[in-house]
């Protein structure tokens, strides 16, 4: 026996006014989108957010276990007069870095990949500042902090030592200053 | 602990976990591994708290349904 009402009054296609008033009520939606479904989704979201931090902590534990950076010779200090910069790689061959002998006579070194979009950073001795030419990002040469343009984070600082007229890279700091 | 408290706890854990995820990523990218572990730990604890609050809420709701 058909469930359809012979007069069509209970069907969705009915033109009857009092039946069309009920068009917005759908039992399936009531069962699917209700208060309990909402709280289930909320709990699921909270757990997903909390557990999505786990891969980062696993990687962090691996990072803690890694050995410290090596001590690497960069250049003879005599070959780097004031106002000049020297490009090298530290701590790996894939990490370009810049050793700067500033016009004020300071020796500083940073990883030279801009913290905005990884373009190489150059030293401008006229303004005594580090410049990323891709998007005009400027970094303070004395501390590596961004001073203008799109970069928001400081350049990683490479710790250096001068011994017997030679400059050595001995470590790296990501957050500093 | 009533129903409203359970709701509040669950919403609170969502807010905390959003912040913890952001801080964890930021600390990880900044190679601050100790802080990464701290924020991640807080996120995991909050996820557990949300689950417990949900379990408690279900218990209250179904037991009150049986009574009525």
From TrEMBL, chain A:
Residues 72-169 form the Rieske domain. This is Rieske 2Fe-2S domain-containing protein. InterPro entries: Rieske_2Fe-2S, Rieske_Fe-S_prot, TAT_signal. It comes from the Bacteria.
TrEMBL record, chain B:
The chain crosses the membrane at residues 5-25, 37-57. The keyword Membrane applies. Keywords: Membrane, Transmembrane, Transmembrane helix. This is Uncharacterized protein. The lineage of its organism: Bacteria, Bacillati, Bacillota, Bacilli, Bacillales.
């Amino acid at each position: 026996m058909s469930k359809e009402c012979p007069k069509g009054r209970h069907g969705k296609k009915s033109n009857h006014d009092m039946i069309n008033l009920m068009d917005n009520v759908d039992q399936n939606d009531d069962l699917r989108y209700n208060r309990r479904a909402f709280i289930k989704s909320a709990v699921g979201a909270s757990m997903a957010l909390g557990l999505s931090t786990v891969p980062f902590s696993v990687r962090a534990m691996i990072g803690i276990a890694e050995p410290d950076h090596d001590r690497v010779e960069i250049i003879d200090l005599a070959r780097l007069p004031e106002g000049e910069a020297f490009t090298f790689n530290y701590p790996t061959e894939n990490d370009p870095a810049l050793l700067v002998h500033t016009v004020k006579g300071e020796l500083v070194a940073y990883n030279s990949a801009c913290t905005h979009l990884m373009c190489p950073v150059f030293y401008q001795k006229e303004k005594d500042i580090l410049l990323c030419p891709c998007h005009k990002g400027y970094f303070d040469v004395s501390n590596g902090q961004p001073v203008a343009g799109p970069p928001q984070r400081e350049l990683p600082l490479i710790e250096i030592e001068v011994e017997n007229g030679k400059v050595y890279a001995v470590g790296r700091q990501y957050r500093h200053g | 602990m009533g129903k409203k408290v359970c709701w509040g706890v669950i919403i609170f854990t969502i807010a905390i976990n959003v912040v913890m995820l952001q801080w964890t990523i930021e600390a990880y990218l900044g190679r601050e591994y100790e802080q990464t572990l701290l924020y991640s730990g807080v996120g995991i604890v909050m996820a557990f708290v949300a689950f417990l609050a949900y379990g408690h809420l279900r218990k209250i709701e179904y037991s009150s349904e049986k009574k009525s």
